[in-house]
Amino acid sequence: LFADVLRHRLRHEQPMQVPDLHRRASAWFEQRGLIPEAMNHALAARDYESAVRLLEGVAGPMIKQGETVTLLSWLDSLPVELVRSRPRLSLAKAWAVVSQDRMQEAAGYLSDAERWTMQEDSSNPDVRTIRGEAAAVRAMMGVMLDDAPAIVDAAMKALEYLPLEQKYLRGLVTMNFAVAHMILGDFPEARRAGNEALRAGNEIGNRTLLHYAYFCLAGIERIQSNLGRAADNLRKALDAAQTPGGSYLPIATLAHRYLADILYEWNDLGGARRHINLALELGQNWWVRDEMIKSYMLLARIEKIEGNTDAVRDALKQAEELTDDRYAFNLLTQIGLPSIKEWHAAGFLQPAFRWAEKSLQTFKPEPDHTIHQSAALASLARLYLAQENSTVALEILKPLLPAIEKKNLTFTVIEALVPQELSLQRQGDIQGALDCLNRGLALARPAGYIRTFLDEGEAMQSLLHRVTGVNRPYAAALIYAHDPRGNHGAVSKEHAGTSTTPGGTFVEPLSKRELEVIPLLAEGLSNLEVARRLHISMDTVKVHLRHIYQKLGVNNRSQATLRARELSLL
After folding, report:
1. pLDDT tens, 93-105?
2. What is the distance between the alpha carbons of residues 267 and 69, in angstroms, rounded to a whole number?
3. Structure confidence at residue 565 (pLDDT)
4. For residue 136, which of 151, 123, 125, 148 has the smallest C-alpha distance?
5. Does residue 135 surpass a pLDDT of 90?
6. CATH number (domain holding residue 561)
7. pLDDT of residue 490
8. What one-character-per-residue DSSP string does 28-49 give?
9. Are residues 418 and 306 located together in one domain of the fold?
10. How many whole angstroms separate alpha carbon 222 and alpha carbon 244?
11. CB–CB of 566/480 below 8 Å?
C-alpha cells in the first residue's frame, strides 16, 4: 500500500521521470536474470527496443514450456506493426494464438514471417529456419483442426527446412506425424512416430517434448481402449512435465485432464477430482479451449455424483462460456443420458442442441470419418436419444459402428454402442439391445470401464440385470457398483464373493503391504509416487505390483483396481 502511494505521488509530482525509472528498473532486473520483471518495466516505459530484444530471447523457451498466456500478454502490449515486422515475433505470436484456437489470426502472422523469408537473401541461415518453424506451426494447426493431410504436408516441409540442430522442433514435428497417423487410424505407424519423438526428447533432455511424446502415445492407447497402458503413459508424461521444485509446466494440463478422464471411468472420483483441478489450474496459463471445456464438463459430472448442485451449475456455466459451434459437441462427450436431460431441462447445453440441428442437416453416413468426427457423431446420436428420438439416433449409429470397428477405434465403439443399446431398448428390441450390450461389455471389461455404464442410470441397469453367459460377472460388478448397499440377490453374492476375507478368494493371500499399495493404484499414483508415499524403493513397488497382478489374476492397474472394487478391497 505504501509503495502504491509513493508511485501515485511520483506520477503526479515528477511524471517525466517515470519512463526513465522504468527503463533503469528493467535494466537492473535483466542483469539479474529476472526477465518477467524486466519485460514489465520495459513495457511500462514503452521501451519497445528493449522489450523486443528481451522477447526474442525468451519466446522460444516460453513456447517450449507452454507459457503461452504470459507470452501472449507481452506480445499484445507491443504495437501490432512492430510484431508483424519481426519474423521471430510473428512466429511467437502465431504459436501463442494457435494454442487459443485463433487459427485465422495465426495464419496472418505466419504469412508475415513467410513473406520476410521471400524478401531476404536466401544465403541468410535464418531464412530456412524461419520457413521450417512456420511450417511446424502449420503442422500444429493441422493437429488442432483434425486435418491429417495438412499435418503431413506441413510436417514434411518443416523437416526439409529445419536445421538438424533444431532437435526440439524436429521432435515436435515428428510427434505431429504420429497424430496424423492416429487420425487416419494407422496405429502401428503412429506408435513408431511417437516413439521416435520420445527418443528425441530423451536425447536432448527436453521435458516439454517428452511430455508431448508420452501424451501422444497415451492417446494412441486410449483410442484403442488400452486404458491401463494409456494411464501409465500419462503418468510418465506428468513426471516429464514436473519441475525439480515439484510444480508442473502449464502443458501438463493435457495429461492431467486425460488421466482424470480415465480415473473417472474407473470410478475413482477422488483421483479424478485431484487431476481435473490441476488441469483447470494449469490451464489458466496454457489456454486450449476444447481442453478447458472438457475439463469443466468432467468436473460437472463429478460434482453431480457427489450431490453438489451449485458446483455443477458453476462448472456447466464455465464450459458454456467457452463453447462455440465448433466445440459444442464437447458438451455431450461421454455424458450420460440422465444428465443430458436434467441439464437441458435446467437451461444448459443449448449450444450443443443448436449444433445438433445443424449437424443433422449435413449428416452423411460416410465410412471414412476421422476419429474426432466419429466421436462427434456418437455425441449427436446421444443427444437425439435424450430427446426421445431413438429412430434418428439409430440412423446415425448403424453406419457409424461398422466403420469404426473396422478401424479398431475401440474407445469410440464402446461409446457408440451405449446409445445404440438404449435406443433399441426404447424401441422394445430387448434382445437387440442385449446383443449390443454384450459386445460392449466384452470390449470394455479388459480396460475396466465402469462409469460408461453407471452414468446411464436405471435404463442401463435394467439391461445389465438381463445379461447372462460370460459377461455375467462383469455385469454383476457394474450392478453392485451402481448401488453397493442395494438388495441385488444372487447378483450381489456373485459379485461380492467372500470379499470380507480377501485371502480366501486368491491363490495366495495379499500381504499387508500389497493391501496398502492397492488404494494408491486406485488414486492414480505413479510408481514413483507410490514409492514416496510408502517410503520404499521403485524396484520394491514393481515387485508388489507383479504379485498383486498374479494374485488378482489381472494384467494391469485398471484391471487390478476393478477387481479390488469387486472384492470390496477399496
Report:
1. 999 999 877 899 9
2. 33
3. 77
4. 151
5. yes
6. 1.10.10.10
7. 39
8. HHHHTT-HHHHHHHHHHTT-HH
9. no
10. 29
11. yes
Count of domains forming the chain: 4
Give the side-chain half-sphere CA count within 13 A for 22: 20
Closest CA to 208 of 193, 222, 218, 198: 198
Residue 109: CA count within 13 A, CB half-sphere? 28
Q: Are 121 and 96 in contact (CB under 8 A)?
A: no
Whether pTM > 0.85 for this model: the answer is: no
Q: Where does a domain end: 434, 465, 482?
A: 482
Confidence label for 509 from pLDDT (cuts 50, 70 and 90): low
Q: Which residues contact 562 (CB under 8 A, 6 or more apart)?
A: 266, 448, 450, 477, 554
All 3 cell numbers of residue 199? 527418443
Burial 413-433 (b: 16+ CB within 10 A, else e): bbbbbbbbbbbbbbeebeebb
Residues 29 and 94 placed together within one structural domain of the fold = yes
Dist CA 107 CA 114 (whole Å): 10
Q: Please give the Cα distance from 370 to 181 (Å, whole number).
A: 11
DSSP state letters, 174-226: HHHHHHHHHHHT-HHHHHHHHHHHHHHHHHHT-HHHHHHHHHHHHHHHHHTT-
Say if CB 237 and CB 255 are below 8 A apart. yes
Q: Which three cell numbers stand for residue 272?
A: 479424478
Q: Is residue 313 part of a domain?
A: yes
Q: How would DSSP label each residue in 233-256?
A: HHHHHHHHTB-TTS-B-GGGHHHH
Cα-Cα end-to-end distance for the chain: 52
The range of the structural domain enclosing residue 391 comes to: 363-482
What whole-number distance in Å separates Cα of residue 201 and Cα of residue 285? 23
Which residue in 365, 451, 361, 370 sits closest to 415, CA to CA?
451
Whether residues 337 and 374 fall in one domain: no
DSSP string spanning 106-120? HHHHHHHHHHHHHHS
Residues 379, 339, single domain; the answer is no
Cell of 211: 511430455
The yes-or-no verdict on residue 4 having pLDDT over 80 is no
Q: Are 297 and 333 in contact (CB under 8 A)?
A: yes
Whichever domain contains 33, its CATH number is 1.25.40
From residue 198, give the alpha-carbon distance in Å to each of 206, 229, 472, 522, 551: 10, 16, 41, 27, 33
